[in-house]
């Protein structure tokens, strides 16, 4: 089972005050806490796509002044044992 090593919080575009956790595992795989990824087991969701897109644009730390994201993303931790979907 992969170990989640990087995590980002992505604010929902449709529900104010709601956010989802996007994680990357040590094997390079991705996961999200949104219903589409969690229950439908889609290999990718719009939250994962957004994080990947932001990482390509600004890999260091999501330099917000230089971004115009469609979703607000905040990197919250790089290693958080005990995170389970």
- Helix percent reads 10-25%
N-C termini distance:
13 Å
Which class best fits the helix and strand makeup?
alpha+beta
Shape: globular
Biggest sheet: strand arrangement: 3-2-1-4
Mean pLDDT: 75
Portion in strands: 25-35%
Oligomeric state, counting identical vs distinct chains: single chain
Over the alpha carbons, how many angstroms does the gyration radius reach? 12 Å
Q: Please provide the ordered H/E string of secondary-structure elements.
A: EEEHHE
Total strands: 4
For the sheet with most strands, the description reads: 4 strands, antiparallel
**What are the low-pLDDT stretches, counting only 5+ consecutive residues below 50?**
63-70, 80-85
Number of helices: 2
Quick take:
The protein has helices at 35-40, 46-57, and strands at 4-11, 19-25, 30-32, 73-77. The protein is α+β, with helices and mostly antiparallel strands and 85 residues long.
Describe the protein.
This protein has a four-stranded antiparallel β-sheet with strand order 3-2-1-4. It is globular, with a radius of gyration of 12 Å. Helices cover 21% and strands 27% of the residues. It has 85 residues and is of the alpha+beta class. The chain has a domain of 56 residues. The chain starts with a strand and ends in an 8-residue tail after the last strand. The protein contains two helices and four strands.
């Amino acid at each position: 089972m992969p170990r989640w090593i990087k995590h980002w919080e992505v604010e929902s575009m449709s529900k104010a005050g709601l956010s989802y956790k996007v994680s990357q595992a040590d094997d390079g795989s991705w996961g999200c806490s949104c219903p589409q990824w969690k229950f439908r087991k889609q290999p990718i969701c719009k939250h994962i796509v957004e994080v990947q897109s932001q990482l390509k644009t600004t890999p260091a730390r999501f330099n917000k002044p230089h971004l115009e994201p469609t979703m607000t993303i905040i990197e919250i931790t790089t290693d958080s044992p005990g995170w389970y979907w």
